[in-house]
Automatic annotation (TrEMBL):
<dbReference type="InterPro" id="IPR001610">
    <property type="entry name" value="PAC"/>
</dbReference>
<dbReference type="InterPro" id="IPR052155">
    <property type="entry name" value="Biofilm_reg_signaling"/>
</dbReference>
<feature type="domain" description="PAS">
    <location>
        <begin position="365"/>
        <end position="411"/>
    </location>
</feature>
<feature type="transmembrane region" description="Helical">
    <location>
        <begin position="12"/>
        <end position="29"/>
    </location>
</feature>
<dbReference type="GO" id="GO:0071111">
    <property type="term" value="F:cyclic-guanylate-specific phosphodiesterase activity"/>
</dbReference>
<dbReference type="Pfam" id="PF14827">
    <property type="entry name" value="dCache_3"/>
</dbReference>
<dbReference type="Pfam" id="PF13426">
    <property type="entry name" value="PAS_9"/>
</dbReference>
<dbReference type="InterPro" id="IPR000700">
    <property type="entry name" value="PAS-assoc_C"/>
</dbReference>
<feature type="domain" description="PAC">
    <location>
        <begin position="438"/>
        <end position="489"/>
    </location>
</feature>
<feature type="domain" description="GGDEF">
    <location>
        <begin position="521"/>
        <end position="654"/>
    </location>
</feature>
<dbReference type="InterPro" id="IPR029150">
    <property type="entry name" value="dCache_3"/>
</dbReference>
<dbReference type="InterPro" id="IPR035919">
    <property type="entry name" value="EAL_sf"/>
</dbReference>
<keyword id="KW-1133">Transmembrane helix</keyword>
<protein>
    <recommendedName>
        <fullName>cyclic-guanylate-specific phosphodiesterase</fullName>
        <ecNumber>3.1.4.52</ecNumber>
    </recommendedName>
</protein>
<dbReference type="InterPro" id="IPR000160">
    <property type="entry name" value="GGDEF_dom"/>
</dbReference>
<dbReference type="InterPro" id="IPR001633">
    <property type="entry name" value="EAL_dom"/>
</dbReference>
<keyword id="KW-0973">c-di-GMP</keyword>
């Protein structure tokens, strides 16, 4: 993620500012601590210098007094005498010496001298000026300095603890003529030094603390009462104020007392003091800052034994601290100011950088757009606000044929063809005015004059609210439109014949109904099915079938008007809608014309084919007010036409609907008929044409309907076939016929065959061969005893399958007969391939055989053809002796079947006939 420049500048400048403040802060603190340290060192040096100076000047002063005021011959004389004098003689000598030096003592007392005493070499005190009554007590144990002077015979001076008071002692040996006579001790209290140092250093207070260890080493246990623990540090002692007050004439203020207590808590003080080093600290008490200097001082032996501590009121540390604060404040303010300046500078630089980057991106985008414009497969044209062309791309030239030079500055109307409706341009300008955008189809003309459709997208560009340019991009959509037309054709037309398809028929029919309704006209829906088309298709191939359908479509189009609807529903079904009819009288004429046209022979390849139509007609508004009803009723009528025989036209009637309802009822009743044992087989004899001996019987089914009584097979067999129930019924017939034959055999009626009708459904069934085989086995039916009849149309329906099924049946020893021969379209070549034994000549030929020369000729040709193929012929429907004679004698027919020889009868009746017949032959 990229952080915007403003934020980046903020972050950078904040970090830089903080860093600068911290660095400057560290620098200032460092400076402050150096200054504080310098201040301390100044104090330290000042105290040290002052101390040394005072000690030194005092020493010089005392030494001068010693040399000139004490080392007088009369003094030395008295001391020399005292050295050898007895105890009794000493007071006299002591008095003389006292009187002699009293003026000197008084003088010295004025400058602060505390002690002035004379010691003899044997450790006795000769004279004490401040306690003249006390003398003669040994002091060696108390003052090591006296012993040093006596033994080493040299002057000794320095700070020394003592029994009563600690002080600066100056001890000089008293010598005369190289003889050591004793020593004289002059002591100055610390208060004297304090006064002197204050004179040099200015206002301040002092404390004197002694190293506990040193005191304990030099002061015996009796005299330790003069010391108590310092409030500053536990390792240091101070002289007991009350006991020493007499001598130490300096006092400390309460503030200093509290400061000392404060020092007990100061870690620096606690840490450094045991090391006897000089140092300075600052502290604050009662709103006053103090510089407290610690100066270690040496004893007589040269080692540090105490600290002189000076408390000096000073505002220097506070001043330094305030300076630090103000410096910090000023520096921070300056840095912040610099930070702000840095921020603005940085922001400007970042913005500049971003601007550069953005410009670079814009430039590369511009070059990209330029490339897109140049390389686009879509033609692009830019016009200005006056709609004059300002730019075009190569695709534009490629599509229109115009070069840049030819169109720049021109109006795009130079592309117009005049084929685009004016309303389209109006809509375009309106949309551009209102929405700045328009898309649509325009027809233009190229430079070479050729016309083409294009899909155009135009966008209006605005600058400050006013249209500045129009950008139009367009593509040639000729191919797309052709494809759309093709799709449209495929969606609405039958690809084979080019007629409308089922979907389009429904759309158009609905429109026709509406307009017929509006104009109070009639419309006729004609359902057309080609008779035997399936046979032609199966036997001669699909290509022949397709060509036949194309020819049919052509003939239908020729016989109808353009306003009529001609469609193919699929297979061999066509629907024609005759529209704009004024009277029903107009309909038969057109329909007959169509029927005649379709019935004409078709020349397809090497074949001359006959394919008649079955037509059903339903009329709007009498036979239906809507599309579905009209189509259904025309279909019903067509179905009836088929039933009536081929090449037939049927007009829908209400009765047809009734028939359809009845068929439904029959189907429902048939489902129960087998369980309820409502079927029965009747048998009709087949006799030898010459001897008239019964050779067999044909089993014909009868239905004893519980309500309707005996129902003939032609009423229910087609329904059973349509519904598939025929398989169950057929199986029952086969079983029953074989059982009956077996019964008759048992009754002694032998050598007759039984013919059973087989429906197309049964023949198609995969189990028919097994079914027949099992039945024959069950009832011990011998070869030739069972004959199966299939109609001519069944045999022609899927011939290849039919042949293989028939072969298998024939192998079982079953005789096979073609029923109703002559009614269907049978190819003789094909008949030859069928494994059949018998042809049954349809009774329609037999009926008029005596009177109609055509029928006679057909019958004769059929019989001779059958004989030529090695088939026997059974003539059906023989009712008269004439017919029998004609068939038997003239045409040499083999078997005859008809009412003349016996109607179909139940088994119990026919059995009598069979028996009688058997006996008579
Ligand atoms: N006018 C006239 N008619 C005669 C004469 N001699 C016989 N007939 C009738 O002709 C039909 C002969 O049967 P089909 O052609 O196989 O025609 C049969 C057959 O196609 C079918 N059918 C009958 N029983 C069965 C069956 O069990 N299974 C199958 N699938 N179809 C059957 O029903 C058709 C009609 O059967 P039926 O009504 O029994 O009609 C029978 C019979 O009664 C005659 O001299 N004059």
């Amino acid at each position: 993620m990229q952080i915007p420049s403003l934020w980046r500048a903020r972050i950078h400048s904040t970090i830089a500012t903080l860093l600068a403040i911290v660095l400057v802060g560290i620098f200032l603190f460092k400076q402050h601590s150096i200054q504080t340290q310098l201040l301390g060192e100044q104090q330290e040096i000042a105290l040290d210098t002052a101390y040394r100076a005072i000690v030194e000047t005092t020493r010089r002063d005392i030494e001068a007094r010693f040399r000139f005021q004490i080392m007088r011959p009369e003094v030395l004389e008295l001391v020399a005498i005292a050295g050898d004098a007895t105890e009794q003689e000493l007071p006299v000598l002591r008095g003389k010496l006292y009187r002699l030096l009293e003026p000197v003592y008084r003088e010295m007392e004025e400058i602060g001298l505390l002690q002035f005493q004379f010691h003899l070499p044997d450790d006795r005190v000769l004279l004490r000026f401040h306690h003249p009554q006390r003398s003669g007590d040994p002091l060696f144990s108390l003052r090591p300095s006296i012993r040093i002077v006596h033994t080493e015979q040299r002057p000794v001076y320095g700070l020394e603890t003592g029994s009563t008071t600690s002080g600066f002692r100056y001890i000089f040996p008293l010598q005369r003529n190289n003889k050591h006579l004793g020593s004289v001790e002059l002591s100055m209290p610390f208060s004297y030094l304090q006064t002197q140092m204050n004179r040099l250093l200015g206002r301040g207070e002092f404390a004197l603390v002694f190293d506990r260890q040193r005191v304990l080493a030099t002061v015996d246990s009796i005299n330790r009462v003069y010391y108590s623990e310092s409030t500053i540090h536990p390792g240091f002692l101070v002289e007991n104020r009350i006991l020493t007050a007499e001598h130490q004439l300096f006092s400390q203020s309460d503030v200093v007392f509290r400061l000392q207590q404060q020092l007990r808590e100061n870690t620096k003080v606690q840490r450094l003091m045991p090391h006897h080093k000089a140092f300075v600290i600052s502290a604050k008490e009662a709103d006053q800052h103090y510089m407290i200097s610690f100066l270690p001082v040496q004893g007589l032996s040269g080692e540090s034994i105490a600290y002189v501590i000076r408390f000096k009121p000073s505002n220097a540390p506070a001043h330094l601290f305030n300076t630090l604060l103000s410096n910090l404040a000023v520096a921070t303010a300056l840095i912040l100011l610099l930070g702000v300046l840095y921020f603005y500078n940085l922001r400007q630089r970042l913005q500049l950088q971003e601007d550069i980057c953005r410009r670079q991106v814009t430039e590369s985008e511009l070059s990209l757009y330029a490339n897109i414009f140049e390389g686009s497969g879509e033609a692009i044209m830019v016009t200005d606000h006056k709609n004059c062309i300002t730019a075009i791309n190569p695709a534009f030239s490629h599509l229109t044929g115009y070069t840049e030079k030819e169109v720049i500055g021109s109006n795009p109307s130079l592309l117009a063809s005049g084929h685009t409706p004016a309303e389209t341009y109006q809509a375009m300008w309106q949309a551009l005015g209102e929405h700045d955008f328009w898309q649509g189809e325009l027809w233009d003309r190229r430079k070479d004059g050729s016309l083409y459709p294009k899909w155009v997208t135009i966008s209006a560009m605005r600058s400050q609210g006013e249209i500045s340019h129009y950008i139009a991009s367009f593509t040639n959509i000729s191919d797309r439109k052709a494809a759309e037309d093709k799709i449209e054709r495929l969606a609405h037309h039958d690809p084979l014949t080019g007629l409308l398809n089922r979907y389009s028929l429904e759309l158009r029919l609905e429109q026709s109904i509406l307009s017929a309704q509006r104009e109070q006209l009639l419309a006729a829906v004609v359902f057309i099915d080609l008779d035997r088309f399936k046979t032609i298709n199966d036997s001669l191939g699909h290509q022949v079938g397709d060509k036949l359908l194309i020819e049919v479509a052509k003939r239908l189009k020729q016989r109808t008007r353009d306003s009529d609807i001609v469609s193919r529903q699929g297979g061999d079904e066509f629907v024609v809608v005759l529209t704009g009819l004024r009277s029903t009288n107009d309909i038969p004429h057109v329909i007959n014309a169509m029927s005649v046209a379709l019935s004409q022979a078709y020349k397809i390849d090497q074949y001359s084919l006959s394919c008649t139509p079955s037509m059903g007609v339903a009329i709007f508004p009498t036979d239906g007010m809507d599309m579905e009803t009209l189509l259904k009723n025309a279909d019903t009528a067509m179905y009836h036409a088929k039933e009536k025989g081929r090449n037939n036209v049927q007009y829908f009637t209400a009765a047809m609907t009734q028939t359809a309802i009845e068929r439904l009822a029959i189907e429902q009743d048939l489902r129960h008929a087998i369980q309820n044992d409502e079927f029965e087989l009747y048998y009709q004899p087949q006799v030898c044409a010459h001897s008239q001996q019964i050779l067999g019987v044909e089993a014909l089914i009868r239905w004893h309907h519980p309500q309707q009584g005996l129902v003939p097979p032609l009423r229910f067999i087609p329904v059973a076939e349509e519904s598939g129930l025929i398989e169950t019924i057929g199986a029952w017939v086969l079983e029953e016929a074989c059982r009956q034959l077996s019964d008759w055999r048992d009754e002694g009626i032998c050598n007759i065959h039984i013919a059973v009708n087989l429906s197309s459904h049964q023949l198609r069934s995969a189990s028919i061969v097994t079914q027949v085989a099992e039945c024959m086995q069950r009832y011990a039916i011998k070869a030739g005893e069972l004959e199966l009849e299939i109609t001519e149309s069944v045999a022609m329906d899927n011939p290849e399958h039919c042949i293989s099924q028939l072969m298998a049946l024939r192998n079982l020893g079953v005789s096979l007969a073609i029923d109703d021969f002559g009614t269907g379209y049978s190819s003789l070549a094909y008949l030859k391939r069928l494994p059949i034994d018998i042809l049954k000549l349809d009774r329609s030929f037999v009926h008029d055989i005596e009177t109609d020369p055509n029928d006679a000729a057909i019958s004769e040709a059929t019989i001779s053809m059958a004989h030529a193929l090695g088939l026997k012929v059974v003539a059906e429907g023989v009712e008269t002796q004439g017919q029998a004679y004609f068939l038997a004698s003239i045409h040499d027919c083999d078997l005859l079947q008809g009412y003349l020889f016996g109607k179909p009868e139940p088994a119990n009746i026919i059995v009598e006939q069979l028996k009688k017949h058997l006996h008579s032959h």
